[in-house]
Every structure is written in C-alpha cells, then in structure tokens.
Amino acid sequence: MDHDGANQQLLSATAADAVEPRHSFIADENDIEPINGPRDFFREFYVETKKLWYLAGPAIFMSICQYSLGAVTQLLAGHVSTIALAAVSVENSVIAGFSFGAMLGMGSALETLCGQAFGAGQIDMLGVYMQRSWVILNSTAFLLMFLYIFAAPLLRLIGQEPEIAEAAGTFAVYMIPQLFAYAFNFPIAKFLQAQSKIMFMAVLAGAVLVLHALLSWLLMIRLGLGLVGAAIALNSSWVLIVLCQMAYIFSGTCGRAWSGFSWGAFRNLWAFVRLSLASAVMMCLEVWYYMALILFAGYLKNAEIAVDAFSICMNILGWIVMIAFGFNAAISVRVSNELGAAHPRTAKFSVVVGVIESTLIALVICLLLMLTRSQYPSLFTDSSVVKSLVNKLTPLLATCVVINDVQPVLSGVAIGAGWQAFVAYVNIGCYYFFGIPMGLLLGFKFGLGVEGIWVGMMSGTIVQTLVLFLMIYKTNWNKEASIATDRIKKWGGEADHLRPREDMQK
C-alpha cells in the first residue's frame, strides 16, 4: 500500500460518530488483564505511573521552561514600567496567544497520527508527517504575520487604550521571528514526543531558559533597551530551541523516523490540512479562552491596573497549567501508542492514572498559593494597588488551578484517541456560548468587575470538563482501538499487529 495514499476524508474519529470497524479487530496479547480488586489496581497503578512519569516528568519540565521564556520577559517588563508590563502582557496574551493557539492546535494533529503510527510500528511515516506539518504551519505563520504587523490598529479597534495598543503593537512587530519559530517547534515536539524522546527537549529547554533570563536582564534592565531588548532575547531563545532540535533530529538519533527530506511531504496536503484544522479549532478554543480575560479586563475602569493584575494571575496560572500540559502530552502519547498497538484496556487505565495524579498535584499547588498570597505578587510588580488586587484574586486563581489541571489531561485523551473534531464543538458550546456570556454578564451587567468575569468564564471550563468526563466514561475502548487501526491503514499502511506473522519478521 502506498504510504502517501491517504484517504481524503477527515480522519478525526469522535466518540459520538465512531462507526463499526470495517475489519476484524485483533487485540494484542500484551494488553493488561482485567483488574479485579484493590491489589490488582495498585499493582497496575504503579506500573502505569512509571510509564506516565517517564513521559510526563520531562514534558512538564520542558513546558514550564518554554512557557517561562515569555513569563521571564513579562516579569522583567514589570520592573521597567507599568506600560511596558501592559504591552508585553497584551502582546503575549492576545497577539502571540492567538498565534500560539493556532500553531499548537494545528501541530497537535501529529499527536494522533504520529502516536498511533508509532504504536503500530509504522515508524517510517513519522518524518513525512512532520514535514507536511512544517509546510502547513509555515504557510499559516505567513498569514498570521499580518496580525502582528497591524496589531496596534486592531487592538485600538477592539477597544484597548491607545497607549497600551501602540506599545503592544510595536512589540508585536518585533516578535514576528517567534511566530515562525512556533511553526517549526510544535511539529518537532509532537514528532519527538510520539517516540518518547522528551528528555533531550527538556534539557534543551532548561539550558535556553537560563540563557534567556541572563540575556533578558542584560538587555532590558542593565542596558535599558526595554521592549527592544525583550524582543531580541525572546526571539533568540525560540530560534535557538528550533535549531538545536533540528540538529538533534538530523544527527540520526531518531533512526527510521527520520530518513531525510521527502517530496512526499507535499502530497495529499489538503487532507492533512483538514485534519490539522480540526485539531487547531479544538486547541485554539481552549488556549484563546483564558487569553480573552486580559482583553476584557482592558474594558474595565482603571484598565491598566486590571490588566496588570489579571496578567499576573494568568502568568501564575500559565506556569501551573504547564504541569497539566506535561500530563496532556504524556497521556496523549500513552493513549495513542496503546490504541495503535491494540491495547484498549491499557489506554483506558492510563486515563485513570493521569486524572488522579494531576488532581492531587493541583490540590497541593492550591494550598501553596493560598499560603503565599501576600508574597508572590511582589515578584511581578512594585505597585501596591496591583499587588492588593492580585491578593484579592488568589482564591479564584486557586480554584482555577484545580479545574485547569484536570481539563488538559482530558483534552490529551481526546487528542490521543483522535476526537478533536467532536471536542471542538463541545468547546464552542461550553466556552463561547456559555462561559464568555456569563463572564461578561457578571462582570459588567452586575458590576462584579474582574471577579465576575473570571467566575463566569471559569463556569464554562467546569461544564466543558464535565462533558469530557462523561464522554470518556462512556467510551468503548475496544472500538477506539479498532478505529485507530483503521486510521493507520489509511494514512500509513497495515499496523504491525494486523500483519501476517511472516511479514512482521521480514
């Protein structure tokens, strides 16, 4: 079967529209046995925990370090001036946040395809998938570049204060190189994650973060370059990450997964675009949702103070959610690999372990936040008014941490199983038809300000999380493993566990 003879239909299978497989499903004998009693549960829990943390540990560290690149810049901007902090916050949250969501979402198509192909032994296809994603994401980056160029008038158009809009628009133009770094970084990350090659990315991210902090301090504070220094440091750090990751792949460490550049990357692009768009819609709706908090804060009285306080809370939440994103990556790899390998019970148990452990971690972090609510705002600002508002918002922040540490894990399950299209509809309904209107109603109509906006939007996340819980609870995992095998056949040939035994030995 031609590896590039991909079916032109959208291949995102959903829990709602999954049909009976068109071939007989053969479960692999290495799938875990049914769990009978607490002893079996805790034994398998320990085994799965080791597998999950082998992926989640480096992924969490990498996610925190990469997120901290922008957070460090924002932290130092708060010590340059309040307008610099507002400019960096708005650019990071609205302009770069919009682009980050689009790029991350389109790149997440590889989590389904690469993860399930790797689990089924179709390793040769991983490099071709990554190259197709590069083509699509760089084309998308070119279109998004105009958003950066015209950021200032667009921000003024949607009601941002002119001074903040002008400063954020100038900073956005400086940050165009970061946009194209995203286009290469996200496909590379998904390519390596599918093979469980996360440790290198974690070490690289840690080293670049140290260099970024030193360079940012030197340029922004020591040399007084302000926003120009921030842009130079942030762009340089992201470009360095991409170049080092490429060198790692090209060096031959990925074996059959990378066999060089191929013209096959340009074939059947439209089918791949449609799959990427389904993934993008799902992820973008999640990433943009809380980014909108910063935007709405700009419409309140004392907008600069509200934006600064909200941006600090979102910065803290962003760091903490990176832990959940690490679990998101790990559970996506575990579910996609196990479904691709025809291990439905193992895939299901991975979900249970991921949800339990992410919830426990979130509760510990909540306690730490509440205990340090009077101290941590000083890390971000010297304004006593802003620090007071952040202190007041901390209970909401703590509640949000619990919700947003569980929800990305459930989204990771959806990505690993290939449910992006269905979850996109769930996100639209819960976030944009319920959460945002509720937040605007409480914040503006009932005069509850930032707290009202946040409570309303958080309610949308709660509803979305409950829907995902219900969807996963009702999932037929045998059927999902069968669908994964069907998907692999269409995109990359026969799965190893369905091949005749003599073919597998060749």
From TrEMBL:
Signal peptide positions (record): none
Pfam families per UniProt: MatE
Single Gene Ontology MF annotation: antiporter activity
Keyword rRNA-binding annotated: no
GO CC annotation terms, alphabetical: membrane
Topology in membrane: Multi-pass membrane protein
Alphabetical keyword list: Membrane, Transmembrane, Transmembrane helix
Domain of life: Eukaryota
An annotated GO BP: xenobiotic detoxification by transmembrane export across the plasma membrane
Family membership: Belongs to the multi antimicrobial extrusion (MATE) (TC 2.A.66.1) family.
Protein name: Protein DETOXIFICATION
Membrane-traversing stretches: 52-73, 93-113, 134-155, 167-186, 198-219, 225-250, 271-297, 309-331, 351-373, 393-415, 422-446, 452-473
Cellular compartments annotated: Membrane
Transmembrane helix listed as a keyword: yes
